[in-house]
């Protein structure tokens, strides 16, 4: 599963890089922050559980990812019109940790159909500690209450429909005794309405 998700992420990155590398300089003069800030959006996809650059990658499995983004309130216009969001990573694994998260999401369209996103907020995990009975690996998040960071790269297929790759990171920022972190990398589709 991780191999397939890695191939999909590399393919998406190659598509984005190839398009960016061949774009005229004028395309980048129109970076637009908050292009769809006043719309609702629903996202749904899947990713690799416990996979990412800051995670020990001791556990195998999949996460089902879903998010709802609300329109940005007008009083947030001065900081780039971030949209409030709520989401979840539901783990399908022998040793799952499921997470519910919320915060603010910023998007910048670097081309009319290509965007990057950054989210930050808080999260709650349904388990603080899990152990793989086969390998003996233990993951101790240090707390059920965590910070959430997310990065994404997406392509607008239409103004309503998009696809993106995402990276979720959950940790307590070393505010507890343990700070192993939990991550997921995957892909998803979204619909704006």
TrEMBL record:
Lineage top rank: taxon: Bacteria
Signal peptide positions on this chain: 1-23
Record GO terms (molecular function): hydrolase activity
Coiled-coil blocks: none
Xref: Gene3D superfamilies: 2.40.160.20
Keywords recorded for this protein, A-Z: Hydrolase, Signal
Record's keyword annotation contains Cell cycle: no
Descriptive protein name: Acyloxyacyl hydrolase
Organism: Hoeflea prorocentri
């Amino acid at each position: 599963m991780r191999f397939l998700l890695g191939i999909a992420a590399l393919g998406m990155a190659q598509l984005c890089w190839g398009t960016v590398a061949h774009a005229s300089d004028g395309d980048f003069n129109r970076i637009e922050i908050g292009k769809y800030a006043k719309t609702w959006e629903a996202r749904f996809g899947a990713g690799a559980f416990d996979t990412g650059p800051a995670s020990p990658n001791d556990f195998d499995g999949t996460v089902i990812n879903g998010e709802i983004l609300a329109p940005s309130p007008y009083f947030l216009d001065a900081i780039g019109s971030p949209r409030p969001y709520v989401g979840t990573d539901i783990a399908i694994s022998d040793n799952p940790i499921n997470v519910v998260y919320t915060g603010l999401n910023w998007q910048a369209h670097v081309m009319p159909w290509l965007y990057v996103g950054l989210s930050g907020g808080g999260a709650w995990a349904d388990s603080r500690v899990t152990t793989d009975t086969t390998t003996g690996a233990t993951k101790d998040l240090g707390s059920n209450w965590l910070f959430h960071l997310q990065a994404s790269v997406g392509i607008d297929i239409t103004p309503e429909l998009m696809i993106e790759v995402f990276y979720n990171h959950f940790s307590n920022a070393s505010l507890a005794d343990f700070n192993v972190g939990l991550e997921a990398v995957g892909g998803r589709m979204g619909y704006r309405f």
